[in-house]
Amino acid sequence: FGLTSPAHYSHPALRLSAADRQKVEGMSGKEVQRKVGVAQLVGITFFAVAGGPFGIEGVVGTAGPVIGLAGLVLVPWLWSLPMALMTAELSTLFPETGGYIVWIDQAFGAYLSFLNGGWSIGCNIFDNALYPALFAIYLRTVWPVLGQTVYSVLLRIFAVAVCTTLNVVGIEFVGVGAVVLLVLSIAPFVALTVFAFYVSATSPFDGEVLNTTSTSYLLSTSTSQWGTFLSIVLWNTCSYDSAGTCAGEVKSPSKTYPRAMVLTIAIITLSYCLPVSASLLVEHSNYTLWEEGYFSVIAHTITTKMGGGGGEGGEGGGGTSWLGVWISLAAACSSIGLLNTLLCTSSRAVSSLSTNCKLYPLFLSRSHRRFRTPFVSILLHAVFTFALSFLDFTVLLEADMFFYCIKLIMEFAAFVRLRRGEWGREKREYKVGGGMVGAVALAVFPT
Q: How far apart are CA 135 and CA 385, in angstroms?
């Protein structure tokens, strides 16, 4: 980055003056209490990363069942684990609100902190805007009348309003809500997995043979689909770093973060692999049909074979089976959980920006005097989230991933940089093993 001396890291013109810091302290009021435990942090991280196996069906359609399942098993430990371990270490080194904003500021100084702030804002506002739209889309699959413009707008307003209220009231409510929504989001997939294994054990394959030795079954023969496969897997297993923005409100960060990160990886991996593997026993004749929303088709097949199928209709050809409806409602719950969590993490990142860099207005760090939450940042995020939710879904996703990749590279660079110099000599309550070699190795694969 062209940084050759300590002077390059300071950039005093970008730093807040003593008077500005006093203003920040005055706007913040009392010290924020640490109320988030392991279960709440697991819930927050779960929705920051995944929100359930919705949309994961494409890994089978693009790479084949065997390679698809292998990716779902291996990628979380090769791609997600480095992010999770980095988050755990740096969140215990800097147990304060802001996460990756603080990490890059301490590693590279105010100038790159300012640039990272811009990338983070771009990533967050486009990411947040995805979920009010998805909430409306999922409910429309159950009740088509909600596809009318007026209902679509009202559903977006409802989603944003509920999540904004929970965030302003306090992170403990965000955490509890995340745990409840986690259970609601994965419950139908637990049922689908159980019923799929039951159906496969009690029903014949209707004359079809599950040929696991054929090349077409093992993997996709179309090289053009491998990029899509990787995009789906990586998209559904990233963003563990977002959990670091709440470090200032987490109880015993050195113990809570490592436990929560590993637990979340395990939960997410199981929530992907079990429904997919069980569903392949039911729908195995043509994996190329597997695409986003195909779990509803599988649900219809399962309930039909069990004698409880519904009528025809619904989007995606999945009929209106009770299990398919349950999955759609769980997807709507997941969208609320994702928006609720990301509004929490992104608002704290922006609040931290205004306390670290003079070029971001101080009022962004203003906290609610009763609830001790960054309510100005939360409200601004809510406004942009609603406004941008009407953009095309593909545009939002591409913009989100563009900014996220830049941000992630900066975070791993900060992780390695903070192993050297003054911070490298700092005693850490939690530290990834292997020394500098281990830190570099951890950063290489994800970047």
A: 13
